[in-house]
Automatic annotation (TrEMBL):
Protein name as annotated: Methyltransferase domain-containing protein
Organism expressing this protein natively: Thiohalorhabdus denitrificans
Family annotation (InterPro entries): SAM-dependent_MTases_sf
Length: 229
């Protein structure tokens, strides 16, 4: 069952946001990492610059860089207007203000765009989409999924969530997913079935608090680790 969100505006987070929302320690950054649905985030560009090993998989990378830049530029005013209109619907402790958030995201997406062409040539950006990923079993130490599973719980089906989590667990020995809220800010109903399914497959699953919050109450990630008996 292919399922991708063509209508999702391309909008990407910074390396620092990824580090905080996934609670990434220095030791984590030395592992081989897969970013699923990384879109125009700068995590790959920045981690590569720091000497890390990372691959990003997203259907967005099917488009040429010029088209991706156009889509980002088109999306920005609407996203900024939505944030301004709903200031009280967000927590500003982390970002400070809409202006600071927009500036951080602009810098992140510029870094991504600068890195994209070279990164595609070296295989760091792969056009692919859940629930099927073109990687071998256990190819990565750690898979990160930011603002895709659970965020779009209303639009991506429960079956898709299970297949997608299973696929991430096939290609990596640890999976972290953030946030656990849907776009409307309510706890995502898909968390419990995904949790139960992973535990049923022998994975150790925890929910951990993180030092990142934009959606009020959205400061927790799901962490699943496979530790063979
Ligand atoms: C809201 S953006 C989040 C981007 C990035 N992870 C971040 O947090 O900044 C969601 C991303 O999921 C990607 N996406 C949509 N459907 C997907 C699928 N089936 N598999 C992988 N990525 C998908 C979109 O192209 C988009 O880049």
């Amino acid at each position: 069952m292919a399922c991708h969100l063509e209508e999702v505006a391309p909008w990407g987070r910074s390396f620092e946001e990824y580090r905080d929302l996934f609670r990434l320690e220095d030791a984590d950054l030395e592992r081989s990492i897969l970013g699923v649905g990384d879109g125009p985030a700068s995590f790959n560009a920045e981690l590569t610059r720091r000497g890390g090993t990372v691959v990003s998989a997203d259907p967005l990378y099917r488009f040429p860089p010029t088209a991706i830049r156009r889509r980002i530029d088109r999306a920005r005013p609407g996203i900024e207007a939505e944030l301004m209109a709903n200031l009280e619907g967000y927590s500003w402790d982390y970002h400070g203000s809409v202006g600071d958030l927009i500036e951080a995201r602009r810098a992140a997406m510029d870094a991504f765009l600068e890195d994209l062409e070279g990164g595609e040539h070296s295989g760091r950006y792969v056009a692919a989409e859940l629930p099927r990923l073109p990687f071998a079993d256990g190819a990565f130490d750690l898979a990160l999924i930011s603002h895709l599973l659970f965020s779009y719980s209303g639009r991506l089906s429960p079956a898709f969530h299970l297949q997608a989590a299973g696929e991430a667990a096939r290609v990596a020995r640890e999976v972290r997913i953030f946030p656990l809220l849907g776009l409307e800010g309510l706890p995502a109903l898909d968390v419990a079935p995904v949790w139960e399914w992973l535990e049923g497959q022998g994975w150790t699953v925890t929910v951990e608090e993180v030092a990142y919050e934009l959606q009020p109450g959205g400061n927790r990630m799901l962490r699943a680790r496979f530790t063979p008996a």
